[in-house]
Design a protein that fits this description.
8-stranded mixed β-sheet, Aminopeptidase, alpha+beta, globular
């Protein structure tokens, strides 16, 4: 199967609520946003280890490296508010390296921007785009079982709960899945 990417540098998306403006691929100018997100203990509670500054820089550089591969193994987009272009968070996908017809999706927004619909809208937009342009059969999301907000969000987006297991962080993890048929429902 031939892999193709259609204009992923700038992904325009105007949601009905006019909350999200432009998704732009993560680049060097986004280091401070990346550090803000991944060094925040509250945000990382259900995601993973809180990074210190040097680790955040290391993972940021590694992320850019993975994004620059051909084909990329992951893509992260910066979520920007429509009316002032303010950076809110990131949403991204990581390919299943065995088949390339499935991705894992994730989103993280600044603490002060949570519960405003940004993460939901960004995830929904990227799912539509990914199914349309990346020849995917499914999109996967993993959430800590105790992260009620993320699990409810996945349910509202139409994901199906597939299984619960002990994940990398040694805690109960929920695996959610969305199939391409979702695009037509």
């Amino acid at each position: 199967m031939k892999y193709r990417i259609i204009n992923t540098d700038v992904l325009n998306y105007l949601h009905d609520k006019i909350k999200i403006g432009i998704f732009k691929k993560l680049n060097q100018s986004d280091l401070i946003l990346y550090q803000t997100l991944y060094m925040d203990a509250k945000l990382m509670e259900y995601v993973g280890e809180v990074l210190n500054k040097s680790a955040a820089i290391k993972y940021f550089d590694l992320t850019l490296k993975y994004m620059s591969k051909e084909p990329p193994t992951m893509i992260l987009y910066v979520i920007r508010e429509n009316n002032n272009n303010r950076r809110i968070g990131v949403v991204g996908i990581r390919w299943d390296q065995k088949t390339r017809d499935s991705v894992e999706i994730g989103v993280i927004v600044k603490s002060v921007e949570q519960r405003k619909g940004y993460a939901h809208d960004a995830k929904q937009c990227l799912m539509k785009y990914a199914f349309k342009y990346f020849q995917l059969n499914s999109i996967i999301a993993h959430c800590d079982d105790e992260n009620a907000a993320a699990n409810l969000a996945n349910e509202k987006l139409g994901f199906s709960k597939i299984k619960t297991f002990i994940g990398k962080r040694k805690c109960l993890t929920v695996k959610w899945q969305m199939n391409k048929e979702w695009m037509f429902s």
